[in-house]
Please model this.
Amino acid sequence: MKKNKILALILTFLMIFPLAACGGEKDSGDPNLVTIGDYQALHTGSKIVQDYDGNDCIAITYQYTNNSKEAESFEWSFYYTVKQGDAELEYAPVFVSEDSYDMLDDGLSEEVNPGETKEVTMTYMLNDLTTPVVLEFSDLLGDETDTLSVDVATLEK
Model:
């Protein structure tokens, strides 16, 4: 009985240690490229836009690439938070035009086939026009992380 407990303990450690080696931040060398697992998001630009109430918002555009074996959307590939300073930014519904119900971020939930790339845009309400916006990406468990910073003060309005 004692041997079984020792064997179970050894097997538990053998299963846990390889997982610890998988975590941490990745450094792709490109500050505009976010990589989490089989998914990549290349930041291609940001701009200041206005929501339906006239509030200043940020529209952040990516080229999302699905390198997995199954179709997946940007929204389901990453867990992400968008912050300005210490405050998490609120989602902002931004319409493409006044006479349309289409929104800038409609593509976030569309599935992308394996090996394909799609342009997607995220929209969030800004707290101010000077503090940088920091996007923190991770996988569902938070083992892999990557960040991207956008200098709001340099964006076109």
User: Anything to note?
Assistant: The chain has two helices and nine strands. Strands lie at 24-25, 33-36, 39-50, 56-66, 79-84, 87-88, 117-125, 133-138, 144-150. The radius of gyration is 20 Å.
